[in-house]
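Hey, quick one: can you model this chain's 3D structure?
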Amino acid sequence: MTSRLDRVTQQRRRKLERIRARGINPYPYGYHRSHTTQQATVLLKQQEDSGQTGAMVVNVAGRITANRPMGKISFLDIGDGSGKIQLYFHHDRLDEASLKLFKDIDIGDIIGVNGKLFRTKSGEPTIKAENFTLLAKSLQPLPEKWHGLGDIDKRYRQRYLDLIANTETKGIFQVRSQVITAIRQFLNQQGFMEVETPVLQPSAGGALARPFITHHHALNQDFYLRIAPELHLKRLIVGGFDKVYELGRIFRNEGISTKHNPEFTMLESYEAYADYNDVMNMLEAMVSEVSQQVLGTDKIEFGDNVINLKPPWRRLELRQAVIEFGGIDFVQYPTADLLRAEMEEIGLEVDPQKNWARLVDELISTFVEPKLIQPTFVMDYPVSLSPLAKTKPDNDRVVERFEAFAGGMEIANAFTELNDPIEQRQRFLQQQEARQTEGEAIETVDEDFLLALEYGMPPTGGLGVGIDRLVMLLSNQQSIREVILFPQLREKP
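Sure thing. Here's the predicted structure for all 493 residues.
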């Protein structure tokens, strides 16, 4: 039995055949626009404000989003990347060829139009079409007759339909673009240099994460898709660049959730002669300034909360945060078995394979992270949880590290970077041993990085910011899939 969609697409294909039969190319090579739809609307208002007489002639182009026939006239809406505008067609003013073509166009087709600007009695900016050109025949109908696309799975799998049907979606990604641009501007003004580092790496270093593995046939060698650009960026600090940053894609072969996507965008920056206090000051200033620049305010709505991004942000020691929100002093339980038993005592289901550091991390994600709605720096982490950070001068069991939280999620992570090559090697080996204990045989010791450290790296403050989560915060979205154009999805059977 033929479905309604099949009948519609068959009808559109027949129209396509008729158009071709009349010698018209339904997919021409280009079209000269004099104005976008938004520029045409602004031009009309400028003409009206200045008192000019005589209608302005424009060429615009876009996708047909509505068609309202009224006898011998038709009103069409077309949209482009800037907005939309109404078109007025009088059938008696179209020549025979144009009239036949007009009868074969559909909602979803892309056309170019030449005509005069005017405003209807209802006040709608409109173009009186003198002639038009078919630029692309749409063989598939737009979703739900242009009432929007509500199927969440379809929105993510066919993002192009989401962008066509839902103006809110397009707005989110415009905000994302503006956020990234504003971050670059901020860092450039601070004297940072943007660089690029390898995505394919011989060891999975720079973070505690499971990597994706691929094989390079020419070199006959396995490589890891980077889980962080950190170790290469710090090589550049060794090499004499004092301030560097990279905005790039990161790949972690781990879970998918409303806050996690296997492929995501990270900002990492490194500043010589700085520590994590300097990085804290820079991050809160950057986020506040970016929000002001993109949204016009540093007080934003996120879910049911109003979040104030204006510095200074709250500073809270990690141990105190876990005690305050979880009721556990993890220092009193120095082994994995003891801490696991205490966590089970309060009702948590705990993976028996997790080591002590990962159990502490679970306490953070379970008790601390959801409670931190206003921007907060959680500081001073156990050394076993932070193999790349420098210990505090007065406590060698704690490192100078912070994570920044807002809206109940982590948005940034930063260290005073460890620059002692001997201690760094010991930390790498301990990290690798812990992962092997958990059944993960992953190479995490980057010998070339250790060699670079032996040449001397100055005291350095490093920062990682999850761009997707920051955009979630600034665009008031509760799922990371709403701010990634093409999120990873399970393949349909």
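One thing worth noting: The first strand starts at residue 57 and ends at 70.
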